[in-house]
Design goal:
about 170 residues; alpha+beta; seven-stranded antiparallel β-sheet; 3 helices; elongated
């Protein structure tokens, strides 16, 4: 396989995994911030693509009430939901209705924000060396990753050149 064909195949694979499929394009994309949410917390809901109504609604058993999502000039629908204070940890379905077209998504709720009846220690245990080994430099990890990617591309290029010569 030539280096150009390898690069084209790699680019096509990256593009295919980065762009949603055509079937998924019919359903609007959804995000909730923060995710996971905590009981009693306000969550910003955002829906984009696949809906062209003046407004949409979002419903979930985790919400205190139905949320009206309004749109701005960019066509992104937003609204704020309040998570019920008694909501248990888990995944909850969020149904978004856009002029009769309904889509379902998942919202995660983490543990309660209620204080624990038993205070937890504020310092960790002193056993072992754990994460204290090394400097934990993120740049070192990024450099190592970039070096590995370069090595793989170099090997692919070398193999392609070698097969082209024979």
């Amino acid at each position: 396989m030539s280096a150009v064909a390898t690069a084209a195949l790699t680019a096509a694979t990256v593009f295919a995994t980065a762009v949603p499929s055509a079937a998924a394009g019919d359903q609007p994309s959804f995000s909730a911030t923060p995710d996971p949410a905590k009981p009693g917390e306000s969550v910003l809901l955002s829906v984009s693509g696949g809906c062209e109504a003046r407004s949409a609604t979002a419903n979930s058993d985790a919400f205190e009430s139905q949320v009206t999502l309004s749109t701005g000039s960019a066509g992104i629908y937003t609204g704020t939901a309040k998570i019920r204070s008694g909501t248990e940890e888990g995944s909850y379905t969020v149904d978004v209705d856009c002029e009769g077209g309904q889509s379902s998504y998942t919202l995660n709720v983490s543990g309660s924000t209620m204080p624990s009846p038993h205070p937890r220690p504020t310092r960790g245990s002193h056993a072992g060396v754990g994460g204290s080994v090394g400097d934990g430099s993120a740049w070192a990890a990024i450099g190592l990753g970039a070096g590995l990617v370069a090595a793989v591309w170099g090997a692919v290029w070398f193999q392609a050149r070698r097969s082209d010569e024979h």
